[in-house]
Design brief:
Length: 485
Amino acid sequence: MDQRIIDFIAGLRAAGVRISVAESEDAFKATRCMGIVDRNDFQDSLRTTLVKEATDQPIFDQLFPLYFGSDGPPMLNLTEDLSPEEKNMLQQALRALLEQVRQAGQPQPGQQSRQGQPSSQQLNNLWQLLQALLQGQKPDQQTLEQAGQQAGLQYADRPSQQQWLQQRMMRQLGMQLLEQLMEQLAELLQQLGMSQEAIDELMEGMEANREALAEQIGQYVGQSISRQQVENQPDRQEQASDLMQRPFKNLNEAEADLLREQLRRLVTQLRSRAALRRKKAKSGTLDVKKTIRANLRYGGVPMELQFKHRHLKPKLLLICDVSTSMRAVVEFLLRMIYELQDQVAQAHSFAFIDDLEGISAEFAEYPPDVAIEVVLTRLRPGYYNTDLGNSLNTLMLRHADTIDHRTTVIFVGDARNNYNNPRLDLMEQIKRRCRRVIWLNPEPPRQWGTGDSDMLEYLPYAHAIHRVSNLAELTVAVDKLLTAH
């Protein structure tokens, strides 16, 4: 069981759950204390020690039954309760059915024109499956491995692939054709004189066994994917590390997906760093916990007093250019900010192309990944229609109350306005009202002021400018935002 728990913790880590060595040790202590006999107590002891964030709960719930079994019904031997006469009828019906299958080359006449003739291997799998459902036998490891290889399970390392691969494995084992075979078996048993009650009971039992088998196949697929995810984790982390340095504009969709997975780990690291960087004060409110912890080396006798420092979380106002060239940058920034809501006092978000639109409501209603998709679908870019100056005018006319002396205003964009009025007068008003103005621009400084870029004109109104052409640069910029207050 200890090795199973170790594998489970590795699976959680591979899925993005951060678990320290101390928390792993706590999990072992909890399970030794609570025991493993009661499944619910065992699950609660692991959940309590290993899950720290609400977003990790679904991952735990998904992986737990894969490593420690499920409450699914066992497969039952349906022939045990049959009378000798009914067993004889069943054997006759099975022989007749086998002959029909061999002659037709398919479970049901007319099926060939729609699905094609099953191979001899598929027919053999189908026949073995029928026997297994009647006798309540689980497929052996070799059968599962063979079906898994034929389905491509050896190449899977993402939980999102589980359902698709489970269906492919079930098809390899013949479960999609099984329903037709069961109907033919019921007809043959009726012709041989078996009572309808006995036939119905037999069919219900086979259906129950079929559902139990599907659950077992799903568990096998999930275990395989989780194991391969653990094995491939170093390679994926190395690849993600390389991709963090690649410009957003050069990422394909698969690479962007890998960085989205990496983002959860980055967010957790940013949250930890923000907490650790809070300064210690030399006077003020006594921090009892820190005082006791700091003086353990003195045998518990307080020698050095520790005080709390009043730390004001930042208020952020995001103004994001969501034109085509900026979409990747905006997506990752919004994901970061809204995953770090506990480190931010307040965040108002606006997006613009030719005019400003509020998007905070979407993030209040949906998780960040869904909200981003909704926003980017609603705001479709046109042809050279970006206008930051007009968007600033809308901001000051309708939303000026979102800016005060605690607000950090963050512009995310390349400052390319298609030669429209940049409205520097409004930028000056914003700078006077807010705490800081931060500009995140994916373009290198040598391109500022070229073509329709107004970046050089906006420079005097920004307290800091960060280049954010890739995820590594964006992470550094967000880290500075969280720790500058």
